[in-house]
Amino acid sequence: MNDTELLVRLAYVCVTGALLWSMVCRVNKMSAATTKRWVRALYALVGAAVFGAMTLPFWRHDWAQWGALTLACTHLVTTVANSRAWRYGPPEHARSRPAPLDPAPEQ
Fold first, then answer.
1. 81 assigned to some structural domain
2. Model-level pTM greater than 0.90?
């Protein structure tokens, strides 16, 4: 293994680790009362996929190449770019709304 391969492996583990951390943090900010079910499921599935992508090379001894590293970096950049919207919980488009408490209008 040369230095370039080692650098790609290290970068891949760091990028996927950062993605996994981000997905765990976002799932922790969500609750059934405030977040739509499909949004919670989406982030949980992405977190599971990132965990699998991060650990797969350790069991198969088949390390990621430049393409996988590029995709992981792209996903990380996208996640970081919209992190401001998640600072205080799920953004408005991901929140569920409680039912109105007003009585139904009479007809």
1. yes
2. no
